[in-house]
Description:
- It is a single chain.
- This protein has one domain: 5'-nuclease (Rossmann fold).
- Helices cover 50% and strands 11% of the residues.
- It has 6 helices and 5 strands; from the N terminus they run βααβααβααββ.
- The protein has helices at residues 10-13, 23-31, 40-51, 57-73, 81-96, 103-114, and strands spanning 6-8, 36-39, 75-77, 118-120, 135-136.
- Strands 3-2-1-4-5 form a 5-stranded parallel sheet, sandwiched between helices.
- It is globular.
- The chain starts with 5 loop residues before the first strand and ends in a 5-residue tail after the last strand.
- The relative contact order is 0.19.
Amino acid sequence: MTAALFLLDTNVLSxxxxxxxNPNIMTRLKAHQxxxxxxxxxxxxxLFGCYRLPxxxxxxxxxxxLFEVVxxxxxxxxxxxxxxxxxxxxxxxxxxxxxxxxxxxxxxAATAHAHACVLVTVNTSDFEFFEELNVVxxxxx
Length: 141
């Protein structure tokens, strides 16, 4: 049996670009580099954040990181039919109990669930009410 992939949320994939990256996240990114995945929704969030910046050295560095480090080394999963079905069911269940996460977070959670990935995020509270979803925070020791 192969080990599960880790589906990285935006805040984890962007960590290496911070002026002082969290050492726990950096260690785990390196340790699991062959098992990293993300959602095309996260890719959109990363690119959107980059393209909102004015032309600058910072933007160029972010673009280089995204296209030269992330894109060739991380598996990308699209939000597809299985994910949409699980998301719709979970969204209805969560709405009934008064817990409505953002639509994008639901799509990211559904993508992780559909591909049997462990969802890695710093913001575990964004995903805490989803059922059958393994969520971890790599910023913690």
